[in-house]
Automatic annotation (TrEMBL):
Xref: Pfam families: RraA-like (PF03737)
Species whose genome carries this gene: Pseudoalteromonas fuliginea
UniProt keyword annotations, A-Z: Lyase, Magnesium, Metal-binding
InterPro entries documented for this protein: RraA (IPR010203), RraA/RraA-like (IPR005493), RraA/RraA-like_sf (IPR036704)
GO biological process assignments: regulation of RNA metabolic process
Record-given protein name: 4-hydroxy-4-methyl-2-oxoglutarate aldolase
Its biological purpose: Catalyzes the aldol cleavage of 4-hydroxy-4-methyl-2-oxoglutarate (HMG) into 2 molecules of pyruvate. Also contains a secondary oxaloacetate (OAA) decarboxylase activity due to the common pyruvate enolate transition state formed following C-C bond cleavage in the retro-aldol and decarboxylation reactions.
Length: 160
C-alpha cells in the first residue's frame, strides 16, 4: 500500500477534497487505508452491509450509513472477518460497531462513531449506492476515501 498521511493529502489537494469533521474513532488494528467507496444504508438493520461483504472488496472501502445511530452496532467480529476474507480495504460506519476487543487485533481498518454491544435488527431493510451525509461531508458511491489516525478525506478522484 502506498504511504500517505491525510494532512499531506489535504495540503496537496485542499481545493478538491472534503474533510470529515472529528468524530470517527479507529477500532481496527490497522489505521491507515484508502479505496473506492461502496455505500450501503442500514436503518437499524445491517443486512445489506452483511451481504455486500461477501463480495470482492479489493481496492474498496465500505461506508455504512447507520444514520448516526448509537443504539446499534452495524459491524462486529464476524462481519469484520468476512470483510478481511474478501479483501475489503476498510469499513467506515456512520454509527457504531461492537466486539471492539477483537476488532483491535484484526488488520481490518474500522472507523465508527462509537461502540455498543447491541446488534442490529435483521429485517432485510436498507439500500445500496446511496449518498451518505455524515460529519459535514457527503460521501457518494465511487468517491475515494483516505483515512489515517488524523482523520478522513473524501475525493471525487484518486489522489495517490
Amino acid at each position: 500500500m502506498t504511504s500517505f498521511t491525510t494532512p499531506d493529502l489535504f495540503d496537496d489537494h485542499c481545493d478538491n477534497v472534503q474533510v470529515a469533521d472529528s468524530g470517527l474513532y479507529h477500532f481496527g488494528k490497522k489505521t491507515t487505508f484508502y479505496g473506492k467507496v461502496v455505500t450501503v444504508t442500514c436503518p437499524e438493520d445491517n443486512s445489506f452491509a452483511a451481504d455486500i461483504l461477501h463480495e470482492n472488496g479489493k481496492g474498496k472501502v465500505l461506508v455504512i450509513n447507520g444514520f448516526a445511530s448509537k443504539r446499534f452496532a452495524f459491524i462486529g467480529d464476524i462481519m469484520a472477518e468476512r470483510a478481511l476474507n474478501n479483501g475489503w480495504e476498510g469499513v467506515i460506519i456512520n454509527g457504531c460497531c461492537r466486539d471492539i476487543e477483537i476488532l483491535a487485533t484484526m488488520n481490518l481498518p474500522v472507523m465508527a462513531l462509537g461502540s455498543t454491544p447491541r446488534s442490529t435488527l435483521k429485517r432485510g431493510f436498507g439500500d445500496k449506492n446511496q449518498a451518505i451525509t455524515m460529519l459535514s461531508t457527503t460521501i457518494e458511491p465511487n468517491d475515494w476515501v483516505y483515512a489515517d489516525i488524523n482523520g478522513l478525506i473524501i475525493s471525487k478522484t484518486p489522489l495517490i
